[in-house]
Amino acid sequence: MGTDQGAAVRKSEKDKQDFSPEQQVVNINKELFDYSFATISSERNFYQAIHKIFEEVSLRFSLDRSTLMEWDKVNRKIRVTSRWVREDDGNDLEKMEQSASINWFIMEQYYQELEYNILTGGKDGKEDYGRDIYAMNKVPVSAVQFPILDSGKMAGVLTFESWKERDWSKAEIATLSSITKMISSYMLRRQMKAELEAEYVVGKKAMDVQNLIYYVVGEQDYRIRYMSHYARECYPDAKYGQLCYEAFMGRKAPCQACPIKACQAGEEQSIVETYDSEEDNWYTLTASVMDRESGARQFLLCKSNVTAFLERVKGEDQLTGVLSYEKFKLEAVRIIKKEKGSFALVFMGIQDFSRINDEYGYEVGDQVLRKFAEEVTIGLRDGELICRIKGDDFAILVNRRSVERMSQRVGELSSTLTDLFRERFPNISINCFAGVYDISGREEYISRCLDRAMKARKVALKNIYETGGVYVYSKEFELQEKEREETNRTMKNCLQRGYFKVYFQPKVDIVTNEIIGAEALVRLVDKDQHIISPGRFIPLAEESGLIVEIDKYVYEETFRLIKKWQDEGRKVPLVSVNVSRLHLLNDNLPVYMKSLSDKYGLKPEQIELEITESVFFEDTERLVDMIKQMKDIGYITSMDDFGAGFSTLSLMKSLPVDVIKLDGGFFLKNQLDGKSRAVISAMMQLAENLGFKVVSEGVETMEQVEFIREQGSRCVQGFYFYKPMPPEEFEKLLKPSE
Ligand code: C2E
Ligand code: MG
Ligand code: MG
Hints:
Layout: E1 8-10, H1 11-16, H2 21-27, H3 30-42, H4 46-60, E2 65-72, E3 77-85, H5 93-110, E4 114-120, H6 130-134, E5 142-150, E6 153-162, H7 170-209, E7 213-218, E8 224-227, H8 229-234, H9 244-249, H10 259-264, E9 269-276, E10 281-291, E11 297-305, H11 307-314, E12 323-324, H12 325-339, E13 343-350, H13 353-360, H14 362-378, E14 385-390, E15 393-399, H15 401-404, H16 406-422, E16 432-438, H17 446-462, H18 464-467, E17 470-472, H19 475-497, E18 500-509, E19 514-525, E20 531-532, H20 534-544, H21 547-567, E21 574-579, H22 581-584, H23 589-599, E22 607-612, H24 620-633, E23 636-642, H25 649-654, E24 659-662, H26 674-689, E25 693-697, H27 702-710, E26 715-717, H28 727-733
Parallel strand pairs: 12-14, 16-17, 19-21, 21-22, 22-23, 23-24, 24-25, 25-26
Antiparallel strand pairs: 1-4, 2-3, 2-6, 4-5, 5-6, 7-8, 7-11, 9-10, 10-11, 13-15, 13-16, 14-15, 18-19, 18-26, 19-20
Helix pairs in contact: 3-4, 3-7, 13-14, 14-16, 19-20
Bound molecules: ligand C2E and magnesium ion (2 copies).
C-alpha cells in the first residue's frame, strides 16, 4: 500500500501549480489526447468510444482499471456505464456502484471546489473510504478521480486506478483532466440531445392523441407557417402560406373575435370561444406567442371542438333530448339519497339495433331512438329518470313498484314502436329488452348498479323469448356469475400449470375389430387428481373465449404425441380433434392448423377436424368456405353430433365434410325401439348414398353393434369397445408400423 497521503487538489490551487496554460499544452500527452478526440468524434457508439479511450490510456499509463460511472436519472441510481480492466477483477461492478452511491453526494460537495482527487490506499486528504475499497476483489491502491459536473450537480465520475503503488505525474494528471473534460462535454451534450428528443416525441404524441387542430401563423401577415397532422386532416384544402381565417374559418376577412389581437396587445396567451353556424359546433381558439430567434414573432393557434363537452355540461343528449349519462348519474344519486325509497335501475336496448341502421338507414335509426325515448319518458312517474348512454343503450331509474310491470311495459313499447314504423316499413320489427337491478336499501355507485343491470340485460337478450325481454338481476344470478368467474380463473390457472390432459378414445371397425381411428378429448385433472370431464367446463370456456387456448393446447399435445408414437415405430390411425365455434370465426384457422402440423412434421391427412352440428346453422356459407379451405390443405373433416340438433337432410347435401358422426344420443343406453331403428337406418342409408363415411358415437351395447352391422355401417366409437383413455394406455393399443 502506498505510504503517501492522498492528495485532493483544490481548484484554486490549480493556478499555483507549475503548469500554466501554455505549459499544460506541453505537459499533456498530445498523442493520447488526439487519439481520444478522434475516437469520440468518429465512433458512433459513445460507450464503445469511451472503452477504446480507456484502453489506450490505461496501457499507456500502466493502469489496471478505468471506469465511467453515471447518475441514472430514470432509475435514480449510480451505474458503471463503461469499464476497462487489465485482468479479471472478479466483477467488482456492484461494489463500485454501491460505494459510489453512498459517497455520491459527498463527492458532489467535494468537487464544487476540487478539480480532481487522488486516493491512496482508499484515503484522500479528507476522508477514509478504506472499508469500501478493501471490500473489493481488486484494491485500487492508487487512484485518481475526475468529476463530470452538470450545473454543479454530479452527472458522472471517471476513475483511473492502479492496483499497485504509483505516483501520478503532473503530465499524467493534466492529460487525464483534459480527456475527462472532453468526454464530459460530449456526454452532457449527448444527454441533452436525448432529453430534447424525448421531450419532442412525448410532446408530439400528446398533441396527436388529443386530436388537436393547431397551426402557426406569422404576426404580420396571418399566413399559415405550420399545421398539425389533425389540422391537415380536418381541413384538407388548407395550404401553407394561406391566410388562416380563409383556411380554417372560411372567411374573407379576419375574424371579429380573434385571439391574436390580445396577444398583439401584449398578452402572452388569449382564448376566445366561437360558434360555427354551418357546422353547428362550438370551438375554443387559443393563441400564444412564439418568439422566433430572428425576432419575427409567430402565433401558435389551437382550435378545439367543445360541443360534446358543452352538451355534457348542459346534461342533455343531443339526439333524443333526454338526460346525458353524466347528468343522470348526478340526479339519480340525489333522488336515491333524498327519497330513500326503493329504486331499480333498468338498462334497456333494442334487439339488433345496428341492423335497423344498416337496413333502413341512420335517419330511420335516429327516429327509432327518438321515439323510444319519447315513449319511455311518457310512461315515467314522478322521480323517475331516463338517459341515453350511447347508441341504443338507455338507463332508466324507476320506482321499485314499476319493476312488476316491466315485462308488460317492455312488451307494449316494442309493439308501439313496431306499429309506428310498420306503415313505412312493413317488414320492420322492433323488440326492446331490459335488464333490471334492484337497488332498494343499498347505497351503491350508480356505475356499479348499471354494470349489474347490463349483465341482466345480456341474459334477457340471450333468452328473449323465454324471459319476455326482461331479466331481473338476482342473488342466485350473482352467485352463478361469481362461480363462473371462479371457474374461469381456475381454468386459466390450470392451463398455465398444465393440468389439462388429452385422452384418446379409439374408433373401431366392427368387421375386423381393428382400431381405425381415435378422438382426442380434453380432460382437466384437478390438484387431487380428480378427472373433470369437458361437459363441466367447455361451455364456460366457450363463453369466456378460453376455449381457443384450451384447444390450441389440445392440438399441440395431440400432434406431439402422434409424432412421438410415429417415431417410436407405431402405426398411428387417423386422429380427430374437436374444433370449437370460436375457432371457426377466425379466418386464420387454416393457416394456423397448417403451421402446427408442419411444426410436428405431420401430414394433414393424418388429422381429422370435428365440427359440431349446431355451428352449421349460424353462418353456413362462411363455414362451408372454411371447411373447403381445410380440405384443400388435406385435412379430413367431419360433422360431429349429427342428429342432436335440427339437422336437416337438405343441409347434408350441401356439406363438404367427409365424415358424419351420428350423435351418441341415438344410442346411449337406449333400448333401440322400432322408431329409433328406423331413423338411424334412414340416416345411415342417406349418408352413405351421399358418399359420407359414417361413425356411430356413444355405442354401449352388443345389440347396438349388431344393429349397426346389419345396416352395413362399420365404424363405431363407444364404451362398448373403449372408453377415452390416457395416452400411456392408448399407445399400448397401437401396432408396430409395417
Ligand atoms: P364429442 O366431440 O361428441 O365427444 C364424444 C363424447 O362422447 C365424449 O365425451 C366421449 O367420452 C363420449 N362418449 C363416447 N362413447 C360413449 C359411450 O359409449 N357412452 C357415453 N355415455 N359417452 C360416450 P366427453 O369427452 O365428455 O366430451 C364431451 C364433449 O366435449 C365432446 O363431445 C366435445 O364436444 C367436447 N370436447 C371434448 N374435448 C374437447 C376439446 O379438446 N376441444 C373442444 N372444443 N371440445 C371438446
Ligand atoms: Mg367430437
Ligand atoms: Mg360427438
